[in-house]
TrEMBL record, chain A:
Family statement drawn from the similarity comment of this UniProt entry: Belongs to the GcvT family.
Domain GCVT N-terminal: 593-862
InterPro entries in UniProt: 2Fe-2S-bd_N, BFD-like_2Fe2S-bd_dom_sf, FAD/NAD-bd_sf, FAD/NAD-binding_dom, GcvT/YgfZ/DmdA, GcvT/YgfZ_C, GCVT_N, Sarcosine_oxidase_asu
SUPFAM superfamilies attached to this UniProt entry: Aminomethyltransferase beta-barrel domain, FAD/NAD(P)-binding domain, Folate-binding domain
Entry's Gene Ontology molecular function annotations: sarcosine oxidase activity
Keyword tags: Oxidoreductase
Protein origin, superkingdom: Bacteria
Name of protein: Sarcosine oxidase subunit alpha
Organism: Pseudooceanicola atlanticus
Domain (SoxA A3): residue spans on this chain: 493-578
Residues covered by the FAD/NAD(P)-binding domain: 171-354
Gene Ontology BP, a term: tetrahydrofolate metabolic process
From TrEMBL, chain B:
Species lineage: Bacteria, Pseudomonadati, Pseudomonadota, Alphaproteobacteria, Rhodobacterales
One Pfam family recorded for the sequence: SoxD
Signal peptide annotation: none
GO molecular function, one term: sarcosine oxidase activity
BP GO terms, sorted: tetrahydrofolate metabolic process
Protein name: Sarcosine oxidase subunit delta
Protein origin, superkingdom: Bacteria
InterPro entries (alphabetical): SoxD (IPR006279), SoxD_sf (IPR038561)
UniProtKB/TrEMBL annotation, chain C:
Gene Ontology terms: cellular component: cytoplasm
Taxonomic lineage of the native organism: Bacteria, Pseudomonadati, Pseudomonadota, Alphaproteobacteria, Rhodobacterales
Alphabetically ordered keywords of this record: Cytoplasm, FAD, Flavoprotein, FMN, Nucleotide-binding, Oxidoreductase
Domain Rhodanese: 34-78
Reactions accelerated catalytically: sarcosine + (6S)-5,6,7,8-tetrahydrofolate + O2 = (6R)-5,10-methylene-5,6,7,8-tetrahydrofolate + glycine + H2O2; sarcosine + O2 + H2O = formaldehyde + glycine + H2O2
NCBIfam families (UniProt xref): soxB (TIGR01373)
Name of the molecule in the record: Sarcosine oxidase subunit beta
Length: 976, 84, 417
């Protein structure tokens, strides 16, 4: 193995890199595979099951063998295809699945036990012995199997990976930059269409870069480079190299992975969502290996890949080669090897009548039955006369034929169809709406046919878009393809690999057939054929042929082949770009957020919002101390709380009142301007969806509040009700949650404090409980609501969000001067539980108005959403769990949320369970724990004892069932 | 998937939310018609008439005719235009 | 033929020539006592338990395509018993017990691996909900532990506890939860049923359900008419179409759920991890692939494939939860057709046509239910009484509103699940 002359590598730019700790040098333009081959390194990996040494089979993304890990430790990348990795200065790569390394792997012993590791053997064993209390599968077999399986190793450190996602739009997406794709892109570009040309190689051109052939009077590679340069200079064309189109989705959406050229500030990878009005698939073909004995050995290589290494990378992948095929391409491979100075020990052409004009040993009608050696040392040739001849060689270049790259045409469930004349599957008609397969991926065999098909496909695609294209002249190119025939399974003994990566051999397929896994889907699943990283790109069709053989059926009679996205494996970091850290979901901050932060409040998530949990003061040891103090502010002086996260929906229109009657269970049309009412919404299935307040600001103008978590859902629900269910009503909705910063002022001194900030103080007797209206604060128009979620005399004041922070600071300062202060979510929760008020712990989507003691809020005089379904017998059954309060009455005084309730003496099992505890709090006001619970027949059981059991926390508490309003049940404090 | 909002033009699936089969809400108390409305579905494998909302866009509710096997979108109309 | 290590050894030494078909491929007979429509996990398990528990073997399973070709072969392989509502609780508990002896019962290694399952929580509210679930599990006699952050971090050091969008506070740990090799479950039940005399008929699509006087008399198929006294519809996402053959409409809407697997990796995730805030769940298969999934695409579909918004959401959830998997590459994605019921819980019941039975509505949780569902439906078919573990799965619960089992609290409306 050595460098030879020519090639598309840049010899002026040597590149140093390391593989398995050894230093090597290659050139810019090399892949890791070509550079290692040039350095004589043939073993790059180990196989999955038998740990056989593996070399390079291909020169593209279909590579099943040469998977390596890039980098070490944090940020290292397992399972990179050496055939796709461009070498760069300092690149460090490692072989995989070998211990201690891929050159010498102790696990290779597995290969000796291969007879016992037949397809599906693991379903038949590892089931015993059964030892009581000792799980032999989990303890013994599975760990051993897991350690042996897998390929690369994932580093567990949490290293950020720079990835991005992006959108792109075009008239025509051309997938693949070989002769077909270049011609399609050129045709469309010259017609003025917006074109994206995506090619997974860094150097577009496809086979033109790997073969020696002339296009338009120059080398194919030069012609391709010229067209690419021309395209790149056009403003309506985006040439995306290193970009693999990975998936097809509905309505012309394509996913594509770009491996970005390294550079400062650049991501490693970008995942593109490309929306294309039309697409031309010009993905080319993938060569098939031939199933012959030991065809997985390093030194066995696809014939086309050999040409690519010789012509493009200027690497001789062996010293002495046998070339085997059944088409003229084999001759081309032999010719290129000879030209590169590689000894061609034999050219074996399975076609009996074939002739050869090269000066090599030629075997027409011969077959290769196998190779010998750990790396290829000799090749066994069955000559046409039946004699088996062993030829010394270190390289076998073989071709079983070509599979059109139909993969993307399968992504919308298209099933490829078999073409007997070319012995291959081609895309079915119309498999992907708007996508035209052209060229080799559609079964074309010559360069000229591909150029022509690319041009025609672009013309057709543009015509579909109503655009006229003037087809450019086609360059002169190779236009004859000799007759070929496919080579599937060769005769002779030994294991013949179909799926190199997963170690599936012809014997495995035969065994599957014997065991009645005759459906191709069964065979694949039983043998794992096609399930490996290459997804059967090289092996699936040959496996189908082997199954057809084993079951006495034709290939199309046996089944078809199909592929799912992605076309090549795509990193989770690329598909999930932006999700790491806080990026997974939007973060919403209220206007007063900086105040809470400056006061040292721990923030907790409430939906997408952040809210302060409590506001610690120096000297306080636990959150409870802070919380108890804050509860005291509200109960004894005045507390300030940011309630901006609650949803606010503005409802306006002549029929707004009628509309609100329809979405709320209770009557809203009787609400007069300047008044607020508590409202309950059901889902149409009769269960409670949400609660909140509805304030009438004027005739036909309301603002309704929702809980923080349900704001989006309620908005969508109300829009549905307005647009779909009641289009007869003239009403408009707008979400104004972010527009207003809203602050609760709660406690006996709330009115006094409020009057300190209002431009016109509230007059005595004005603003009774549930009043609302406009006020002025520092010259700013504000909205004031006299509502309470604590049971105290309280207000909520809303100002435009930009004034929220300063008003909040001002209110907190003034409250502190009155012996009160700011309170957080913990205190808010205690305050509402003391009053028996509800949150989504009780409105959990399963409860009804009846369950929550709110049946009286369901108007009998009007229709409303959920009315009919709420009347079902099962929703009004008295034995349903219904809302009660509980308080501890025994030695144990602790209540816990999530606990279950039982009769005091009953065993704590499912059949005895009578309810669950939804919310608990320690009430500093009452000096004991208080809890809300849903208990069967609850309200009929006040005064009874129940036992609360929390198995998980080990708490068992005797409780008394009480009314849920522990404090001020008649509500005098809020009204006063 | 991409839908063409009659107000905003062609947009990606991520701007829309599916809202159920297009059925007519019954009147009156609970009965078989309500049961059918809330629970029973044709669940067609093929052409399906559905409500969607462009809730990340103009907030309009839309009538969509869509094939549940191919994901082909046959028509998108505002709910006001055409009976469910 | 019994499977065991000795047999594998002997066959290995003799060229593996002695292995025979795992199941027979009989021609359909003109009549059976019971016809099961659908040769997926649930249908095959029903056939197995009819034979094993009730001695009923004049039974045929009719499969449109190939055995195990539905959701049993396209899921994330999670097996657990961590429900909290009565009705579900006892059923999944029973199903898990069946899993625990399944390999003995089937003489087939389905690789049931009780590697433990973690449900993460991120707030006090979620902790309380998870505690309620855990207490329900213990009430039922199953296992659950509440882990705080420190305890969880010892077991799962690779999660991003602090920097993720939803910092992790702890988890509910279900040691008996785990995974199984999904295809093997279908094949094991198929082999067990076939060995006991049940006819498994592949490539046999049911095109009609025959009734006479309001009672089932048989089915029409692409392989001819088959008479039957009892017919069970066990066709998951296709339940609506098959039930329509008998003139029924079901409370089911079929949605697509996508799942993903990465390339093989050395052991890195030893348990099953569920990240509720991200609708994300992940485990690592014995072959080394990370198997994970997310939420529905949220539109009805029979395409068995989904779209990018959900794909990306799932991946983003993975990245915020455990950034280490960023370097793993997704190898394959697929979609299953989920038979979603309004309350998210299944139906095992007699249909309003005599002799017709329904087993459907498994939503996105049918895999772990395979043995339990087969066992319960076999019991119902054999005795016409629901099995004790499945009394809650009534069809009429939607009509009456009695016994709804809405674990997620999203409501008995299709468009809200």
């Amino acid at each position: 193995m050595k460098r030879i002359d020519g090639g598309l590598i840049d010899r002026d730019h040597p590149v140093d890199f390391r593989f398995d700790g050894h230093a090597y040098q290659g050139f810019a333009g090399d892949t890791l595979a070509s550079a290692l081959l040039a350095n004589g390194q043939r073993v790059l990996g180990r196989s999955f099951k038998y740990h056989r040494p593996r070399g390079v089979l291909s020169a593209g993304s279909e590579e099943p063998n040469a998977l390596v890990t890039l980098g070490l430790g944090a940020g290292s990348e397992p399972n990179a295809r050496a055939t796709m990795v461009e070498i760069r200065q300092g690149l460090e790569a490692f072989g995989q699945n070998g211990f201690p390394n891929v050159g010498f792997d102790l696990m290779e012993v597995n290969d000796l036990f291969a007879p016992f590791f037949s397809a599906g053997f693991y379903y038949k064993t590892f089931m015993g012995p059964k030892l009581p209390g000792w799980r032999v599968w989990e303890r013994v077999f599975e760990p051993v199997i897991r350690r042996a399986a897998g390929l690369g190793r994932l580093d567990r450190t949490k290293t950020p990976i720079a990835t991005e996602k992006a959108y792109a739009f075009c008239d025509l997406l051309v997938i693949g930059g070989g002769p077909t794709g270049l011609m399609a892109a050129l045709t469309a570009a010259e017609a003025g269409a917006d074109v994206i040309l995506a090619d997974e190689d860094h150097l577009p051109g496809g086979r033109l870069n790997g073969d020696r052939q002339e296009v338009g009077g120059q080398s194919g590679a030069d012609w391709a480079a010229g067209i690419v340069a021309q395209l790149a200079s056009m403003p309506n064309v985006r040439v995306m190299t290193r970009t693999t189109v990975t998936g097809v989705y509905d309505q012309g959406t394509y996913g594509a992975l770009e491996r970005v050229v390294p550079g400062r500030g650049r991501p490693e990878e970008t995942f593109w969502r490309i929306t294309a009005r039309r697409a031309v698939l010009a993905a080319g073909g993938i060569e098939r290996p031939v199933a012959l004995a030991n065809n997985d050995r390093p030194g066995v290589m696809l014939s086309g890949a050999v040409r690519t290494y010789v012509n493009r990378y200027a690497v001789a992948p062996g010293r002495s080669a046998v070339v085997f095929g059944a088409s003229d391409e084999a001759h081309r491979t032999a010719a290129d090897l000879l030209r590169a100075g590689v000894h061609v020990a034999a050219l074996v052409d399975a076609r009996p009548g074939a002739t050869c004009d090269l000066t090599v040993r030629f075997h027409a009608g011969g077959l290769v039955e196998g190779v010998q050696g750990r790396e290829v040392e000799s090749v066994a040739i069955r000559r046409a006369d039946g004699v088996l001849e062993k030829v010394q060689a270190d390289l076998l270049a073989f071709s079983g034929g070509w599979n059109p790259s139909v993969h993307l045409t399968c992504h919308l469930n298209g099933r490829p169809v078999w073409r007997d004349d070319i012995a291959a599957f081609v895309p079915s008609e119309g498999a992907v709406p708007g996508l035209i397969p052209a060229g080799a991926c559609n079964g074309e065999a010559t360069t000229f046919a591909c150029l022509s098909a690319g041009r025609d496909a672009a013309v057709q695609a543009l015509a579909n878009l109503g655009r006229q294209a003037t087809p450019p002249d086609l360059p002169q190119a190779e236009d004859t393809a000799g007759e070929g025939r496919p080579l599937w399974v060769m005769p002779g003994k030994g294991r013949k690999w179909l799926d190199f990566q997963n170690d599936v051999t012809v014997k495995d397929v035969e065994l599957a057939a014997r065991e009645n896994f005759r459906s191709v889907e069964h065979m694949k699943r039983y043998t794992t054929q096609g399930m490996a990283p290459d997804q059967g790109k090289t092996g699936n069709v040959a496996a189908l042929a082997a199954l057809a053989d084993a079951t006495g059926r034709s290939i199309p009679g046996t089944g078809t082949t199909t592929y799912r996205p992605p076309f090549v494996p795509v990193s989770i970091a690329a598909l999930g770009a932006g999700g790491q850290g806080k990026g997974f979901a939007a973060e919403r901050f209220t206007a007063a957020h900086p105040v809470a932060l400056s006061m040292g409040a721990p923030m907790i998530e409430a939906g997408l919002w952040y809210r302060p949990s409590y506001f610690p003061k120096s000297g306080e040891q636990t959150w409870r101390e802070s919380c108890d103090r804050e509860v005291g502010y509200v109960r004894n002086a005045v507390g300030i709380c940011d309630v901006s996260t609650l949803g606010k929906i503005d409802v306006q229109g002549p029929d707004a009142a009628a509309f609100l009657d329809f979405v709320y269970t209770n009557n809203m049309s009787t609400l007069k301007p300047g008044n607020t009412r508590y409202g309950l919404m059901l889902r149409e299935d009769g269960h409670v969806m949400d609660d909140g307040t509805c304030a009438c600001l004027g005739e036909g103008h309301y603002v309704v509040s929702t809980t923080t978590a349900a704001a989006g859902e309620v908005m969508r629900h109300m829009e549905f009700a307005a647009q779909v269910l009641r289009p007869d009503l003239d009403v408009r909705l707008a979400s104004v949650t972010e527009h207003w910063a809203q602050t609760a002022i709660a406690g006996p001194q709330s009115r006094e404090l409020l009057n300190e900030v209002l431009d016109t103080p509230l007059a005595d007797g004005d603003w009774p409980f549930m009043a609302c209206g406009e006020v002025s604060v520092g010259g700013i128009a504000a909205r004031l609501f006299r509502i309470s979620f604590s049971g105290e005399h309280a207000y909520e004041i809303a100002v435009p969000a930009r004034y929220g922070e300063s008003l909040f600071r001002c209110l907190v300062t003034k409250a502190e001067a009155r012996g009160g202060g700011v309170y957080g979510m913990e205190a808010l929760n205690v305050l509402r539980i003391e009053k028996g008020l509800l949150t989504h712990a009780e409105l959990d989507g399963r409860t009804t108005a009846y369950d929550l003691g709110l049946a009286g809020m369901m108007s009998k005089k009007k229709d409303f959403i959920g009315r009919a379904a709420a009347g079902r017998e099962g929703l009004t059954d008295p034995t349903r769990p219904r809302l009660v309060g509980i308080k501890p009455v025994g030695a144990v005084q602790q209540l816990t949320s999530g606990a279950f309730l039982f009769e005091p003496e009953a065993e704590a099992t499912r059949v005895n369970a009578q309810g669950t505890v939804s919310s608990v709090a320690f009430s500093p006001t009452l000096g004991h724990f208080v809890g809300l619970a849903l208990l069967t027949e609850g309200p009929e059981r006040y005064g009874e004892k129940v036992r609360m059991v929390d198995h998980l926390r080990g708490v068992s508490t005797l409780c008394e069932v009480v009314h849920p309003a522990f404090l001020d049940p008649d509500g005098g404090r809020a009204r006063g | 998937m991409r839908l063409t909002c009659p107000h905003c033009g062609e947009r990606d699936l991520r701007e829309f939310t599916f809202g159920g089969a297009t059925l007519t809400r019954p009147e009156g108390d609970w009965g078989p018609d309500w049961d059918a409305y809330i629970h029973l579905r044709e669940n067609p494998a093929g052409l399906s008439r559905e409500y969607w909302t462009h809730d990340m866009g103009c907030a309009a509710w839309l009538l969509v005719e869509r094939d549940t096997v191919t994901h082909d979108i046959r028509a998108v109309r505002p709910v006001g235009e055409g009976a469910p | 033929m019994r499977f065991n290590a000795l047999r594998v050894l002997k066959e290995g030494l003799t060229g593996n020539r002695g292995w025979g078909p795992h199941w027979r491929d009989p021609e359909p007979k003109p009549a059976y006592d019971i016809v099961i429509i659908g040769g997926g996990g649930h249908g095959l398990a029903t056939a197995f338990y009819l034979a094993k528990e009730h001695g009923l073997t004049n039974v045929a399973v009719l499969e449109k395509g190939y055995l195990g070709g539905g959701n049993v072969g396209r899921n994330t392989t999670i097996v657990r018993a961590n429900y909290f509502l009565p009705g579900n609780s006892e059923f999944y508990s029973h199903s898990l017990k069946l899993w625990e002896t399944l390999e003995d019962d089937l003489n087939y290694n389905v690789m049931h691996s009780q590697r433990g399952l973690f449900n993460l929580y991120h707030s006090d509210g979620q902790r309380d909900a998870i505690v309620r679930r855990g207490n329900a599990m213990i009430n039922q006699g199953d296992d659950a532990f509440l882990l705080d952050r420190a305890a969880l971090e010892k077991k799962l050091p690779f999660l991003d506890y602090d920097n993720g969008r939803f910092p992790i506070h702890g988890a509910l740990y279900h040691p008996r939860g785990g995974t199984a090799r999904h295809d093997a479950v279908a094949w094991g039940f198929a082999r067990g049923a076939s060995d006991r005399g049940v006819d498994l008929i592949q490539n046999c699509e049911v095109t009609g359900i025959d009734t006479e006087g309001g009672a089932v008399t048989g089915v029409q198929t692409t392989r001819g008419a088959i008479r039957a006294r009892k017919v069970a519809i066990v066709t998951a996402g296709r339940s609506g179409q098959v039930a329509a053959l008998a003139g029924l409409r079901l409370p089911i809407e079929s949605h697509v759920l996508q799942a993903f697997v990465t390339e093989g990796l050395k052991p890195v995730i030893d348990n099953v991890i569920t990240f509720g805030m991200g609708h994300f769940y992940i485990s690592q298969s014995d072959k080394g692939g990370l198997v994970f999934g997310g939420d529905l695409d949220f539109y009805p579909s029979y395409a068995q494939r989904g779209n990018l918004p959900t794909v990306e959401h799932v991946m983003e959830a993975g990245m915020t939860l455990m950034p280490m998997i960023g370097r793993a590459k997704v190898l394959r994605s697929w979609g299953g057709i989920m038979d979603m019921t309004p309350d998210g819980s299944p139906i095992i019941d007699r249909a309003p046509v005599d002799g017709l039975y329904l087993d459907c509505g498994w939503c996105y949780g049918g895999f772990k239910a395979v043995p339990g569902s087969g066992f319960a439906l076999a019991h119902l078919l054999a005795t016409d009484r629901p099995h004790d573990s499945a009394t809650g799965f009534r069809l009429d619960r939607f009509t009456t509103g009695r016994g709804l089992m809405d674990e997620e609290g999203k409501g008995a409306q299709h468009n809200l699940h």
